[in-house]
Amino acid sequence: MLGFKKRQVSPTPKDLKIIPREIKIDLEKGLKDNLYWMDGDPVKTHFMNALQSSFPEGERMFIDSARDVRDQCSESIPEELNQQIKLFIRQEAIHGAHHEDWNNALIGLGYTRLAKYSAQLKSERLKMKSSAPAIFRLAVTAAGEHFTAITARLHIHGDPEFLNSLDRPVRDLILYHALEEIEHKAVCFDLFEHAGGNYLTRMLGAVSFSLGMMLHVRRIHVYLLKKDGLWNKENKKKARQYIWGREGLFFKLLPDILDYFKPSFHPWDKDDRKWLAGDFNNDLEEYGIQAPVFA
């Protein structure tokens, strides 16, 4: 099997601080008051609703895979990485609860089929947990963490108009989650490498994550727009352009997606933290959320 040499020293910054933060946001009221919270656009809003709808079960899978691989090689894991895994799990558990609230708020607004889709994802997660090796599930997780981190960086730093298009309280939640996704973006990747994961397994995990995410998001996106009576020719075209067009999300993320295919890749090849310090100090000050910590 194709492999890569185990790193002697991880490129993860030594001054990195992973900080589990608590934040309470009334999504139910926010979505009820403003259903199309992204630029007043149902296509864009429901794409983001669909994207986040997989996160409660997705983050449970991420946590499961990290715990399982950690337990398999617990005696050899460096203490620093072990602490990062614990903090990653705490952050993701909080995030999953927020996304569960988001789904429940949408269900309360009449998008009741989301409960069925969530149950299906749970069944798939449990089936994968019982049948797939932990190291492969961790490869899927590492790919998922890369996707969330590069999306976070794009939305905060690479596409300034994105934040301006969001209404509160969703804007606050996305900012807060983006911060923590970037902080812990390399934890599962480092654990994967420490456990002896090879390049082929990493690529298979990336393909599995990508296909699963695309199928789920499209299914939910179409459902949400159909529920509103808006799955028409005009909005089908708008959806394609928003996701796959030359100025769409996929092409904006493509350079970072391709980086993941480099055998020498590491998530901290790009240090995102310098782009975050100013963004979060003002936006989340009222919630008492601690900004990124680095030298």
Notable traits:
295 residues, mainly alpha, Heme Oxygenase, Chain A
Can you offer a commentary on this structure?
The chain is mainly alpha-helical and 295 residues long. The protein contains 13 helices and no strands. The protein has a single domain (27-287), classed as Heme Oxygenase, Chain A (Up-down Bundle), CATH 1.20.910.
Would you count the extended β strands for me?
A: 0
Q: Describe the biggest sheet?
A: none
- CA radius of gyration is 19 Å
**Percentage beta strand:** under 5%
Order of helices and strands: HHHHHHHHHHHHH
Summarize the structure.
With 295 residues, the chain is mainly α.
Topology:
Blueprint: H1 27-33, H2 42-53, H3 55-72, H4 79-108, H5 113-131, H6 134-158, H7 160-164, H8 170-183, H9 187-194, H10 199-227, H11 233-244, H12 249-259, H13 277-283
